[in-house]
Design a protein that fits this description.
It is a single chain. The protein starts with a strand and ends with a helix. With about 375 residues, the chain is an alpha/beta fold. α8 packs parallel to α9 and α13 crosses α14. The protein has 15 helices and 16 strands. This is Queuine tRNA-ribosyltransferase. Keywords: Glycosyltransferase, Metal-binding, Queuosine biosynthesis, Transferase, tRNA processing, Zinc. Pathway: tRNA modification; tRNA-queuosine biosynthesis. InterPro entries: ArchSynthase1/Queuine_TRR (IPR050076), TGT (IPR004803), TGT-like_sf (IPR036511), tRNA_ribo_trans-like (IPR002616).
Length: about 375
């Protein structure tokens, strides 16, 4: 259940109650594709850095270790020792990212595994069954993520199929939640709005899926080739047509400035691999923008990554030391930078919530964008 607590313009401050706890929104979900954050960050670390929701991947966990293994271990929460909410994406993005190894049919998608090439089939029912085995808090509907730009005729056909898949997802999850041996029989379902960069297709699709009264709604198929301006235009067009009493999730976004702009347009949930991926390569976020710790100018820099930051890296180590760890190829370098970047994102969301609560979000957004100066 989503409860709107406050609005500041279109920016929304809410609480989302789930079977695994209450999520304060806007929120950034920390991405742990294989039930682990890349960079040697544990579920215990996630609690320390203020993570509210962890996100794992249906397709990847289906391959390794296998969703049946996770089920036998009591579901993802027990398996990875994480008590707070987990969202699992449906595998639909792999339809996009593994485009050279798949065939899309009405019944679903035929894949070749990126690991060993073996044949895999996944449709709406299979995706729901895998996610039910994983026992995540929130299951995402199975959809096709369309590359931008795509021909209008293809987008129309794809969106119509995604809608038909959504009905099948809802029916199958309702069936699974009714079974006595289902681990999480209160698993929630989010639908996904698609339509490329065509506003009219997006709006019509939003109106159609809004009638299904799902637990939440995502805007998918963005940050996949279009400009930031096109992305903002689509959010502006779509968000008003999604149910305002449900959370709105912008999938796969993004950089800090994207998040501020999307919050300003009414978005509640975010996720992106970017902070962890950047951290693993020494690129870290600060209040003055992103810096690269591999640069020679940090060799004798005794300052923390970001002055005043309360993350585990900044409280105990210098830029010079972390740079040395990277040069020496020590894994601790990645771990410290990933911890810092995730803390930065989680803390950014906390500050955004406080700004909406305090009616100063517009001033906060303006100040942050000026501070980062395009370096975020």
């Amino acid at each position: 259940m989503y409860k709107l607590l406050k609005k500041c313009g279109n920016a929304r401050r809410g609480e989302f109650t789930t079977p695994h706890g209450v999520v304060q929104t806007p929120v950034f979900m920390n991405v742990g594709t294989l039930a682990a954050i890349k960079g040697a960050v544990s579920s215990i670390d996630l609690e320390e850095i203020g993570c509210q929701v962890e996100l794992s991947n249906t397709y990847h966990l289906h391959l390794r270790p296998g969703d049946e293994v996770v089920r036998k271990m009591g579901g993802l929460h027990k398996f990875m020792n994480w008590s707070r909410p987990i969202l699992t994406d449906s595998g639909g993005f792999q339809v996009f990212s593994l485009s050279k190894m798949r065939k899309i049919k009405e019944e679903g998608v035929y894949f070749s595994s990126h690991i060993d090439g073996r044949k895999i089939f996944m449709g709406p029912e299979e995706s729901m069954r895998i996610q039910s085995n994983l026992a995540s808090t929130i299951a995402m509907a199975f959809d096709e993520c369309i590359p931008n730009p795509s021909p209008r005729e293809y987008v129309e056909d794809s969106v119509a199929r995604t809608t038909r898949w959504l009905y099948r997802c809802k029916d199958e999850l309702n069936r699974l939640n009714s079974l006595p041996d289902t681990i999480n029989n209160k698993q929630m379902l989010f639908g996904i709005n698609q339509g490329g960069i065509y506003e009219d297709i997006r709006i019509e699709h939003a109106k159609t899926i809004a009638k299904l009264d799902l637990d939440g709604y995502a805007i998918g198929g963005l940050a996949v080739g279009e400009t930031h301006e096109e992305m903002y235009r689509i959010i502006d067009a779509v968000a008003p047509h999604l149910p305002q009493d449900k959370p709105i999730y912008l999938m796969g976004v993004g950089i800090p400035s994207n998040i501020l702009e999307a919050v300003d347009r009414g978005v509640d949930f975010f996720d992106c691999v970017l902070p962890a991926r950047n951290g693993r390569h020494g690129h870290v976020f600060t209040k003055d923008g992103k810096i690269n710790l591999m640069n020679a100018k940090f060799e004798l820099d005794a300052n923390p990554i970001d002055e005043g930051c309360q993350c585990p890296a900044c409280k105990h180590y210098s830029r010079a030391y972390i740079r040395h760890l990277f040069k020496a190829k020590e894994l601790l370098a990645m771990r410290l930078c990933v911890l810092h970047n995730l803390y930065f994102y989680n803390n950014l969301m906390k500050e955004i919530r406080e700004a909406i609560d305090g009616d100063y979000f517009q001033d906060y957004k303006k100040q942050k964008l000026e501070q980062w100066g395009g370096r975020a």
